[in-house]
Amino acid sequence: MRERLLKLFKLFESFVLFSFLGWIYESVWCAMIENNHGFVNRGVLFGPWLPIYGIGILIILAVVKKARIKRPLMIFCVATCISAVVELIGSYIMEMLVGSFAWDYSDMFGNFQGRIAVKPDMMFGFLTLIAVYGVMPHLKEYQEGNQRIRMACDAAVFALLMIDAGFFIGRMIA
């Protein structure tokens, strides 16, 4: 039981970290640097997280682990394809919940209904390589640290995320 709980905490920590890093990528890189718009909170939630990134990386990491994929080129290809599927499904879910989706790739090469395109999905593949080889080793190191402190931090972040999700749901209902 304790091992399952610890595994759940590790999954949650990965989800939150990559949701946060996705928010940084979208709000800083995409908005400020690539599109010269200045800072824009690109998330649907108030907090600094984009859950689609957390969900996407967890799916990618699970597939890579289950398929025992080790070569960076294969990880990149698998991540690129999975990212496209996650983003496509995410766009339909978002459109169903809020009436639109938060991105538009209509002007990009190889786009499908403006929901997915070659360049962003390849970027997600590249970001997955950074996650696997650059971020995950440090996250694993952190996860081997003091469990009480980690669990307290996780509980606080979980509470904030749930409050944020509650506000989102409240906006949808109103």
- How is the biggest beta sheet arranged? none
Could you say how many structural domains there are in total? 1
Number of strands: 0
Q: What is the overall silhouette?
A: globular
Strand content: under 5%
Helical percent range?
over 70%
Low-confidence stretches: none
Ends distance? 40 Å
User: Could you give the order of the helices and strands?
Assistant: HHHHH
What is the radius of gyration computed over CA atoms, rounded to a whole number of angstroms? 17 Å
Average pLDDT value? Answer: 90
Helix and strand content put the structural class at mainly alpha
Number of helices: 5
Strand-helix topology:
Layout: H1 2-34, H2 51-66, H3 72-98, H4 118-143, H5 147-173
Helix pairs in contact: 1-2, 1-4, 2-3, 3-4
Features:
single chain, 174 residues, mainly alpha, globular
Describe the protein's architecture and organization.
The protein is mostly helical and about 170 residues long. It has one domain (about 1-165). Helices cover about 75% and strands about 0% of the residues. The protein is built from five helices and no strands. It is globular and about 50 Å long.
